[in-house]
Write a structure and sequence with these properties.
It is a single chain. This protein is of the alpha/beta class. The protein has three domains: 207 residues, L-fuculose-1-phosphate Aldolase (3-Layer(aba) Sandwich); 183 residues, L-fuculose-1-phosphate Aldolase (3-Layer(aba) Sandwich), CATH 3.40.225; 210 residues, Rossmann fold. The protein is built from 24 helices and 20 strands. It has a seven-stranded mixed sheet with strand order 3-2-1-4-7-6-5, sandwiched between helices. Helix 17 links the parallel strand 14 and strand 15. The radius of gyration is 30 Å and the shape is elongated. It starts with a helix and ends in a 10-residue tail after the last strand. The mean pLDDT is 91. Bound molecules: zinc ion (ZN). The site of zinc ion (ZN) has 5 residues, from loops.
């Protein structure tokens, strides 16, 4: 497509507004340009370039703006009514290119407004002013007669028609404010519309600063148990058992700051936090209300009961909200899940919660934005957003439900919502396992001695990279705390870090044997212990996986210093399976042999194959299948063990077949 300079200007202005989280977040806001184009026959036609549905303003490109014919859409202006389905059909049908993205649901509003350029945001400062009982009066005083003000209406045909009638009466307006939703500004150029947007937001910010009557909300003295104690309990309360006996788990994204603390510690928290989100769109990611955990006991069983009860009560409250409002929308097929997406903990901060890290992050970002808007609104008056029914209309809007059903139909990755810790994960088997678990949907913490190596692997899939000397029990505890603070818990441990020491057992130095025991036995024990503590807080079982070795069952000459602790670790697996089966925690091992890694280097392979007088290739393929065994083969074995809900105390051999080393 050829991109006109006007469209380039629109893209640039959209990206600038989109990059400012105080103006829009996560797909919020939109923009448009009216222009002339030519149809296939070469005839000139009036078109609107409008942001595609679901596109993020911060990252839009020209191709994210489908061109729609103005004429068939203008013909809808005077209809008495139009269903959402018919509107979407008309919008999609008006695209010049049927393969272009679906136009924004606010497209008709852009079509009916006469301005060449239209920009739309949900600016925090504007929302703090309009979400007031006297919001309309306040906004008229601040913005003057040049801004047209429409009462709240759901985005779509009704709002577009209201806007059209209003602007017909105010042809010189520089913008349109939709109460309790957001601001549209107009311009002959993109620069003009952008300047008007920024000026209005600055004016709103100035008003908030000058009108502030209360410092912040009245704060109650709050103390809370620590984050790493609470997060696993919260995740545990969200988890449900699937029909195949695997766990359906959630991920958390924790935030705190002075502003968040002032908000969650406020005496009136329940009133203002339960009032609703700052702009109705947020409801899709945040639900109408947050979960408030304001009386958390420190004692573990009491905390577990309290959080479970609070989540259950939230679910009942959500079910009655759905029942109260279901009659508003004919297309409501079934209630959505009754779990909260935001949890507020006085004395601590807030959690975003989601099935994936992305969902949890979006919920946390929006919750943080709401803290800002609500705090500002409360400092000049009282926060008063749209009604519960208006929120329901957005949450259960037909096209939105269809989008969710399409996403669900795609299926979920096997490890979605699961949090895995992999040690020795900067290279070799650890890195291959971390990658494979992440590719199957897990949130993965990559632990290794050096931070740079751990982070390099973690950043490939948006995981968490941590430096950790696994032979230092305190460092292990700190690392597991960091994983819990970052993702909310731990479900899977792949204890993989190890190193091979050699020596003839009758003469080997004591020091070598002890060093090997530190890494090849005690390190497995201390990290397993730290993970079991988290798993028991979650109360939803867990999967412990250990990398043992062929040496644990079939010793090689002069490999005693390596094989002895590995044999102890093999027994450790059985002890964990025995002692923690009652907690639903499974313990399994992979017994791998002859994998080309940092432990079996190319130089070692050259040396050993020469000693056996075979080629390197033949040496690596010296097994029953006659094929080299790779780090990915081992990673797959770990994956299979973790996906087998009834398997514990098992050892899975990955060596291409070796009868001498076969378990008996
Ligand atoms: Zn909007």
């Amino acid at each position: 497509m050829t991109v006109s300079s006007d469209l380039k200007q629109l893209v640039a202005a959209s990206r600038k507004l989109g990059a400012n989280p105080k103006l829009v977040l996560h797909g919020g806001g939109n923009s448009s340009l009216k222009a002339q184009a030519r149809d296939v026959a070469g005839r000139p036609i009036d078109v609107l370039y409008v942001k595609g549905s679901g596109r993020d303003l911060a990252e839009v490109e020209a191709r994210d703006f489908p061109a729609v014919r103005m004429e068939p859409l203008l013909a809808l202006r005077d209809l008495a009514s139009l269903t959402d389905a018919a509107m979407m059909q008309a919008l999609n049908g008006a695209r010049l290119d049927p393969d272009a993205p679906s136009p924004s649901v606010e497209t008709l509003l852009h079509v009916f407004l006469p301005a060449t350029f239209v920009l739309h945001t949900h600016a925090d400062a504007v929302l703090a002013l309009t979400n007031q009982p006297n919001g309309e009066k306040l906004c008229r005083e601040i913005f003057g007669p040049g801004l047209a003000i429409a009462p709240y209406a759901m985005s779509g045909f009704a709002l577009a028609q209201t806007a059209h009638k209003l602007i017909a009466k105010h042809p010189d307006a520089w913008g349109l404010l939709v109460l309790k939703h957001g601001l549209f500004t107009f311009g002959k150029t993109a620069d003009e519309a952008e300047k008007r947007m920024l000026d209005a937001v600055a004016k709103a910010g100035g008003k908030l600063r000058s009108a502030r009557t209360k410092a912040t909300s009245q704060r109650a003295k709050r103390v809370s148990p620590p984050l790493e104690d609470i997060a696993p309990v919260l995740r545990g309360a969200f988890a449900t058992r699937n029909p195949d006996d695997t766990w359906n788990r959630w991920v958390g994204d924790f935030r705190t700051s002075a502003a968040i603390r002032a908000f969650v510690d406020g005496k009136d928290l329940k009133r203002y936090a339960n009032a609703g989100p700052a702009t109705p769109d947020h409801v899709i990611w945040t639900k109408p209300k947050p979960l408030i955990l304001d009386a958390l006991p420190a004692d573990l069983p009491a905390m577990q009961n309290y959080v479970r009860d609070a989540v259950a009560a939230f679910g009942q409250d959500y079910a009655s909200y759905v029942a109260r409002n279901a009659g508003r929308r004919a297309e409501v097929s079934a209630p959505l899940d009754p779990l909260p997406r935001v949890a507020l903990v006085p004395g601590l901060g807030l959690f975003g919660l989601g099935r994936t890290q992305r969902e949890a992050k979006i919920a946390a970002d929006l919750a943080e934005a709401n803290v800002g808007v609500i705090t500002a609104a409360e400092s000049i008056g009282r926060f008063a957003p749209v009604s519960e029914g208006d929120l329901f209309d957005i949450e259960y809007w037909g096209p939105e439900q269809a989008k969710r059903e399409r996403a669900n139909a795609k299926g979920t990755p096997a490890l979605q919502g699961q949090i895995a810790v992999v040690t020795g994960a900067a290279s070799g088997i650890g890195a291959a396992t971390a990658r494979m678990f992440a590719a199957n949907g897990a949130s993965v913490a990559v632990l290794d001695l050096g931070l740079a190596g751990a982070e390099a692997v973690a950043q490939e899939f948006g995981g968490l990279g941590l430096a950790c000397d696994v032979t230092d029990a305190r460092a292990v505890k700190r690392a597991i705390d960091a994983v819990v603070q970052h993702f909310g818990g731990v479900d899977i441990l792949v204890s993989n870090a190890g190193a091979a020491w050699q020596g003839e057992i009758g003469t080997v130095a004591d020091d070598i044997l002890r060093r090997s025991f530190e890494l090849n036995f005690f390190a497995h024990q201390s990290i397993a212990q730290a993970c079991v503590a988290v798993m028991r807080r979650q109360k939803t079982g867990g999967s412990l996986l250990f990398n043992t070795s062929k040496q644990a069952v079939n010793p090689g000459a002069n490999f005693g210093p390596y094989g002895l602790p590995k044999a102890a670790t093999l027994f450790l697996v059985r002890q964990y399976a025995l002692d923690h089966g009652k907690d639903g925690i499974r313990a399994n091992a992979v017994n791998a042999d002859r994998i080309r890694t940092g432990l079996l280097t190319d130089a070692m392979i050259a040396q050993r194959s020469a000693a056996r007088k075979v080629s390197e290739d033949k040496y690596m393929r010296g097994n029953l299948l006659g094929e080299e065994v790779t780090a990915d083969d081992v990673a797959r074995a770990f994956l299979h063990l973790t996906l087998s809900p009834k398997t514990t105390a098992a050892v899975l051999t990955v060596d291409g077949g070796n009868i001498e080393a076969a378990l008996r």
